[in-house]
Amino acid sequence: MSDRWVIHLPVTAPDLHRARIFARTAARVLAQLSARVEPGGVTVSAEDEQCVRHWVFCDRPLPHGRGRCALSAEHTSPCAPRPPWLRRP
Ligand SMILES: [Zn+2]
Q1: Contact at 8 Å (CB) between 89 and 74?
Q2: d(Cα 61, Cα 68) in Å, to the nearest integer?
Q3: How far is the CA of 1 from the centre of ligand 1 (A)?
Q4: Sorting pLDDT into bands at 50, 70 and 90, what band is 83?
Q5: How far apart (Å, rounded) are the C-alpha atoms in residues 58 and 21?
Q6: Would you list the domain boundaries of the chain?
Q7: How many whole angstroms from its chain centre is CA 80?
Q8: Please, which pLDDT band fits residue 87 given cuts at 50, 70 and 90?
Q9: What is the per-residue pLDDT across 29-70, written as a single tens digit (0 to 9) for each?
Q10: How far does residue 44's CA lie from ligand 1's centre (Å)?
């Protein structure tokens, strides 16, 4: 067994758009509390289709080793780096 544990925290929202907003907000708040948040792994799903996951963050790798994109999964602007408060120590 791994020495890491993953928190599954059901939070409901009325639709996919607001679920993504809540999930991004929760990930960012937890990151500020120094929890080891992996934004690229954050997903949301319909309550009755939990096997169909929707990404919350883009998380594409940025060129020149600049980390990963911190924007929402559905963003249309160019990818951008993770703000300092979301970077891992
Ligand atoms: Zn991106």
Answers
A1: no
A2: 4
A3: 33
A4: low
A5: 13
A6: 16-86
A7: 14
A8: low
A9: 888 887 788 888 999 999 999 999 999 999 999 999 888 898
A10: 18
Dist. CA 53 → ligand 1 center (Å): 18
* φ, ψ of residue 34 in degrees (nearest 5): 70, 20
CA 10 to centroid of ligand 1, rounded, Å: 25
Q: How far is the centre of ligand 1, averaged over its atoms, from the C-alpha of 3 (Å)?
A: 30
Identity of the residue numbered 76: T
Cα 85 to middle of ligand 1, angstroms: 18
On whether the CB atoms of residues 53 and 43 are closer than 8 A, the answer is: yes
Token look-up 């924007």 returns 71
User: Could you tell me the two tokens for 34?
Assistant: 């120094």
CA 66 – ligand 1 centroid, Å: 12
Per residue in 2-33, pLDDT tens? 888 888 888 999 999 999 999 999 988 888 88
